[in-house]
Amino acid sequence: MKFPKPYALKTIADLIDADFVGDENYEVLGANEIHVVEKGDIVFVDHPKYYDKALRSKASVILINKKVDCPEGKALLVSDDPFRDFNKLTHFFKPFEKATQNISESAEIHDSTILQPGVFIGNHVKIGQNCLIHPNVTIYDHTEIGDNVTIHAGAVIGADAFYYKNRPEGFDKLISGGKVVIQNNVEIGAAATIDRGVSGETFISEGTKIDNHVQIAHDTFIGKKCLIASQAGIAGCCVIEDEVTIWGQVGLASGLHIGKKAILLAQTGVSKDLEGGKTYFGTPAEEARKKYKEMVYISKLPEIYKKLK
């Protein structure tokens, strides 16, 4: 999430009512999560386990809940609740805009694109040439869609990230200020859902085809010419390289990296990074040939047991 202009460190500190360490005129350019943070950005951290990672990251400003030594060339914002104050920044720089009609006046839609009845297009959406958006598709604010994209009925693009902090009084939501970017020649199936980034982008690359009832969570990157079959669920912050095939009911845990041309067979459960160019099956995911051999060995156990009696 980039700010519309540079802001002084003191201005940001005053906005969230936090103390600061560093030059009060130090320029701040945006606010992002740790996995997408860049120079000039604020990153927040509220657990000692992740202090070092945040302090060593590309972030120029660390929003933290403890006074620590400030790394050279950086600045600190010291807050009793960084999660809350990161939400304040999102509210300020990306406030919710109420819709007043089905197709927002601020949306930029090429004349050659077809919108079927019942489509909702939010504020500041961009849609390119020769797209076909079928009935009852919902496209949230700030979504960017390229050329020759087809989105089938009932799909939802750009809903909030599923991201909560567990507090004694209940779950506290991290407000989503990111967006979804869909490149050219992508097809998205009926009732598929793609959540926007918390502070960055959920990205669907050129030529990828997504089946009905697929869920892609916040800040995930999908490479070029991927195939994702029905009922697959991909958690947040995953990176899926080009030409990966994901068959039905596959589930991926958050933050995983799937290599180029990997194939994930139906109902595979993925809990660790997978190399490209191989076929995987089972839960936890293993190379398919190895998994099938294990299944054969297991099927022979009753026979072996009888011989041992």
UniProtKB/TrEMBL annotation:
Q: Please name the GO terms of the biological process aspect recorded for this protein, alphabetically.
A: lipid A biosynthetic process
Gene3D superfamilies annotated for this entry?
A: Hexapeptide repeat proteins (2.160.10.10), MurE/MurF, N-terminal domain (3.40.1390.10)
> What CDD domains does its record include?
LbH_LpxD
- Per UniProt, residues of the UDP-3-O-[3-hydroxymyristoyl] glucosamine N-acyltransferase non-repeat region domain are 26-91
Which keywords belong to this entry? Acyltransferase, Lipid A biosynthesis, Lipid biosynthesis, Lipid metabolism, Repeat, Transferase
The protein's matches in InterPro entries, at most eight in alphabetical order, are given as: Hexapep, LpxD, Trimer_LpxA-like_sf, UDP_GlcNAc_AcTrfase_non-rep
- Annotated Gene Ontology cellular component terms: membrane
GO MF assignments:
N-acyltransferase activity
PANTHER family per UniProt: UDP-3-O-ACYLGLUCOSAMINE N-ACYLTRANSFERASE, UDP-3-O-ACYLGLUCOSAMINE N-ACYLTRANSFERASE 1, MITOCHONDRIAL-RELATED
Name used for this protein in its record: UDP-3-O-[3-hydroxymyristoyl] glucosamine N-acyltransferase
